[in-house]
Design brief:
Elements: H1 15-34, H2 38-41, H3 46-55, H4 57-71
Length: 100
């Protein structure tokens, strides 16, 4: 019986579905650059790649990791938005005791 796996982002996805999505996104050449295995670079096909990935756990793990990395939102040096979480207006101004 299938178990509930609410925290597993791969639950319910087949290796074939993951591979097809990655090929659609990156193409075979892009996939071969990211995961350097012959089944992606030498006469690639879904069928031959699935056969290789199913019998090669480390390669399958790399494909799954690439898929999962694609799901995570990119965070490129994002800091707080201007005016949010920072000092308010007038911050950094020093009040001179002689002006009152």
């Amino acid at each position: 019986m299938p178990e509930d796996q609410p925290n597993n982002p791969l639950h319910g996805l087949t290796l074939e579905a993951i591979l097809r999505l990655l090929v659609e996104k990156y193409g075979w050449e892009g996939l071969a650059e990211r995961i350097p295995v012959r089944c992606f670079s030498m006469d690639p096909s879904i069928k031959s790649s699935l056969a290789f990935l199913r019998r090669t756990p480390w390669a399958r793990a790399k494909v799954e990791a690439l898929y999962l990395g694609r799901l995570r939102p990119r965070r490129k040096g994002r800091g707080p938005k201007p005016g949010v979480g920072g000092p308010g207006p007038g911050a950094g101004r020093h009040r001179d005791a002689s002006t009152g």
